[in-house]
Amino acid sequence: MHNTTTTIRRLAIIGVIMLVPALLFSMAHAEIEPQAHKRIVSLSPNVTETIYALGKGDLLVGRSDYCTYPEAALGLPSVGTLYAPSLEKILSLEPTMVVSSAFVSDQLLAAVEKAGIEVVQLHTQDTFGATYSLIRSIARLVDAQEQAELLILNMQNLVRDVDNKVQGRDKPTVYMALDFGSFDSAATADTFLSEMIEMAGGTNVAKDGLNWTYSKELLLLHDPQIILLSPRWGESGEETVKEFTSTKPYSDLSGTIKVFDADLVSRQGPRSAQALKLLFDLIHTEAAQ
Fold it and tell me: Which of 62, 87, 113, 125 is the 20 to 30 A CA-CA neighbour of 175?
């Protein structure tokens, strides 16, 4: 039972994280023209947030369980999880388009297309800059290009502010723990989160790892100065910290533990610049006060 629970948690974490990198679209048609009466079911938290940020939330008629931001999204009916959304629920909402993650089965997407509904499938990217491509792609779908450019400009200004603050500062060693225990998930070199740690003025100790997975031995060897810890599913930050600090080998680490909002940081989209500022504040606490 414990192994099953761990496996489920591991899949959930990897699934949500791998959605959060910026996304490129592989579309059923070469071009998708904006339509006046689109009805969209979004299975990606990034896409849901972006559509709302562009002022086009009225086009959404459904979401996944993980599409929890902004609060208005909670008023939309959910069609289920990222991995196994309900075809029946999707069809009942009568969408004209379904935006899919890479984790939805090809069989389900084929069934959606067979029902005459356009499918937009997403592919992950691993750079911070690809966030802007995501926003522009979504903007084309919902005819909000001008809003997108304004949003991107505001994000770039905030990123520039963070970059200016980073200049000339020491770069403490940082480890971002997305999960721990039998499976250690971290911001490894091939993730946009690793890039964000460096942009925020930290030195990512997990940049010698790959595939969101890190070894306990290397973690102990590096003994980072700052440990950014994501609250576990269904736990408070305090509960997660207590579990982390009372479990070997993590209890042997000497770094300062700081809890961070995983939804904000790991969902690459309109709030990514805000997330970068949050990381700067966590890494350089004195400067943030």
Answer: 125
Rg of the chain over Cα atoms, rounded to whole angstroms, equals 20
C-alpha to C-alpha distance for 278 and 205, rounded to whole angstroms? 19
At position 51, the amino acid (one-letter code) is I
Beta bridge partners of 99: 42, 120
Q: pLDDT digits over 17-68, tens only?
A: 545 443 444 443 434 444 558 999 999 999 999 999 999 999 999 999 999 9
Q: Locate 267 and state its tokens.
A: 């969902």
The mean pLDDT value for 121-138 works out to 84
CB contact set of 29 (below 8 Å; sequence gap of 6+): 118
- Between CA 121 and CA 108 the distance in angstroms is 12
Q: What pLDDT sits at residue 234?
A: 84
CA-based nearest residue to 39, from 117, 145, 144: 117
Q: Is residue 49 within 8 Å of 66, Cβ to Cβ?
A: no
For the chain, percent of residues with pLDDT exceeding 70: 85
State residue 2's pLDDT score.
Answer: 46
140 and 192 housed in the same domain: no
Helix axes 2-19, 45-53, angle to 10 degrees: 40
- Identify the pLDDT of residue 29: 40
Question: For residue 270, is the peptide bond before it cis, meaning its omega torsion is within 30 degrees of 0?
Answer: no
Query: Could you tell me the pLDDT band of residue 124, with boundaries at 50, 70 and 90?
Result: low
Buried b (16+ CB within 10 A) or exposed e, 18-53: bbbbbbebeeeeeebeeeeebbbbbbbbbbbbbbbb
Are 17 and 146 members of one domain?
Answer: yes
Which residues span the domain enclosing 217? 168-288
Tell me the three-class secondary structure of 162-184, residue by residue.
Answer: HHHHHCCCCCCEEEEEEECCCCC
Residues 122 and 55 in one domain: yes
pLDDT for the residue numbered 26:
43
